[in-house]
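Q: What structure does this chain adopt?
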Amino acid sequence: MTPEERAADTGLAREKALTFLEYRDRTRREVQLRLRRYGFEAEVISEVCGWLEGMDLLNDRRFAERYAAEKVAAGWGARRIVSELGRKGVDRSLASRAASTALREEGAAPGGARGLSAAPPGVMAAGLVDMVVRRFGPLLASDPQKATRRAADFLARRGHEWSAIDWVVGEARRRVAGAQDAEGPAQNAEGPDLGDHIPDQDHAEDAE
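A:
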């Protein structure tokens, strides 16, 4: 390849990379793979990635931090976040730091939130309990064992450790049971109690 051809190739590769980065951040590996698909040589790809990093248009640390924050908000655990970042080419130590920071900032504190008992490290304390109660609350009230299995599977698929799953589901069960105890007398005074309508909720859950 002549110097002129190399310069033209590099310019075209920059254009392709900028288009690829137009809508969201990417990792260095994602850009490398995309440019490779276009048929660019390894030296050109390396040069373009270095140029993008120098312009702060390509930054694996920034990508990892934003990705981790987004996925923690969606209920993911550290294990899945680190795994997915690894698939995207992010260094494992960088991915682990990003996941830990996101969990901590989202509220993964050691207990204290909303009267919760001490949470295991890496648990997004109140947020995950809220999520489980919203999603499985009616079933927790009517069939705690079935709800526990479903909630555990739900959290496991999002990459949470089993110690965290046990804690979150236990807190959710206690919260629902406490709400039932508090509402019982008022419901009895009004007429139908909780047992009169729980089966319908259970049936709706099974129909999903």
